[in-house]
Amino acid sequence: MEHSGALISLVYLSTAMVPFSKQDLLELLAKSRENNSKLGITGMLLFKNGNFLQVLEGEREKVRDLYHKIGRDPRHGKLIGLFEDSSTGPDFPDWSMGFHDLGSPQTMRIPGSNHLLDSSLTSADFASDPSRAKKLLLLFKEDKLLSAKGTGAS
Question: What is the maximal distance between C-alpha atoms in the chain?
Answer without folding.
Answer: 42
